[in-house]
Amino acid sequence: MELTVRPRRLRGNETIRKMVRETRMDKSSLVYPMFVVEGVNIKEEIPSMYGQYRYSVDRMEEKLLELAEAGVQNVMLFGIPAHKDEAGSGAYDTDGIVQRGFRKARQACPQLYLMGDVCMCEYTSHGHCGLLHGQDVDNDRTLELLAQTALSQVQAGADMVAPSDMMDGRVGAIRRLLDQNHYEHIPIMAYSVKFASSFYGPFRDAADSAPAFGDRKTYQMDFHNRREAVKEALLDAAEGADILMVKPAMAYGDLIREVKDATHLPLAAYSVSGEYAMVKTTAAAGFVDETSIMCEMAVSAYRAGADIYITYFAQELAKCMEEGRIG
Ligand code: PBG
């Protein structure tokens, strides 16, 4: 057989396969999303996300230490307040749940890099991501509150803020307020390409943040759109975002690549709650091998162009990287 090119030559054994591997990743790029809840001595499992918990501030430390031990250095905090109101005032309360979570994490695990999800939907009684005007979110009045939320998180110890609300102009508004308060050095990771997605279902259970009426389609993106993804990414970059994000990850690999090629900023991909729940439930049913598909999904995000991977599987992935199973 006259075959000059034989791709199988480079697949002969594990050593050569690793030598020519095109996608390399490292634990330092993993981010773990964590839920902090009001109350004392609480570690409660989230029903739609087996293996994920809500922690009260006094119980955060055990999880943070476990993450640090596993080599996961980056944690993104989400707060779940006891009381919600029209204006989402818990989001920017200097003594709010997530702010106390930051203070605790800062003190308990100073080596961790702490990120804050900046949004109002966990804190509003109507579950929308900003102030309402009639049935819709009032973009410009919301900006000020988002900026206050970001500032309060930074004052409480956040190393980075990540606006996920999808209001127009939020990156610029947050940048200005942080700078006015001498936090010029704090980076902003913008959820730039965030779709109105049913993959967030389990998260909304976890954070009790489903909208009370309607949906998020007037602010989150329509998932039929591709050029708009680049438009959002470029806009956030122009407003001063330091890192961009595509969310969800699994069904959006094309857009991870598109944004990667269109900008020069580091890019994060958020593998969301629905992706996690799908893996957990199909594995529990015995239909797939959990660790294998978790790894495959993670590699696909990096291969598409992600530099940073936000995932509820961060600890398990760190282990797989450590063992050389992927990476
Ligand atoms: C807040 C926010 C959401 C997620 C991250 N930040 C929920 C939403 O937009 O409805 C989803 C994360 C996940 O599903 O894992 N706006």
Main sheet attributes: strand count, strand direction, barrel closure: 10 strands, mixed
Q: Using DSSP, what is the number of strands?
A: 12
Strand composition percent: 15-25%
Mean pLDDT, nearest integer? 97
Integer-rounded radius of gyration: 20 Å
Q: What share of the residues lie within helices?
A: 25-40%
- The total count of helices amounts to 11
Could you tell me how far the N terminus lies from the C terminus, measured between alpha carbons in angstroms? 35 Å
Q: Note the quaternary state here.
A: single chain
Low-confidence blocks of residues? none
Structural class: alpha/beta
Small molecules held by this entry: ligand PBG
What general form does the structure show? globular
Helix and strand sequence: HEEEHEHEEEHEHEHHEHEHHEH
Task: Walk me through this protein's architecture.
- There is one protein chain.
- By secondary structure, the protein is of the alpha/beta class.
- 38% of the residues lie in helices and 17% in strands.
- The chain contains eleven helices and twelve strands.
- It has helices at 14-19, 60-70, 97-108, 139-156, 170-180, 201-207, 227-239, 253-262, 273-284, 290-304, 314-322, and strands at residues 30-37, 43-45, 53-56, 74-80, 113-118, 132-133, 136-137, 160-163, 189-194, 243-247, 267-271, 308-311.
- The protein starts with 13 loop residues before the first helix and ends in a 5-residue tail after the last helix.
- Bound molecules: ligand PBG.
- Ligand PBG binds at residues 117, 119, 121, 129, 164, 200, 203-204, 272-273.
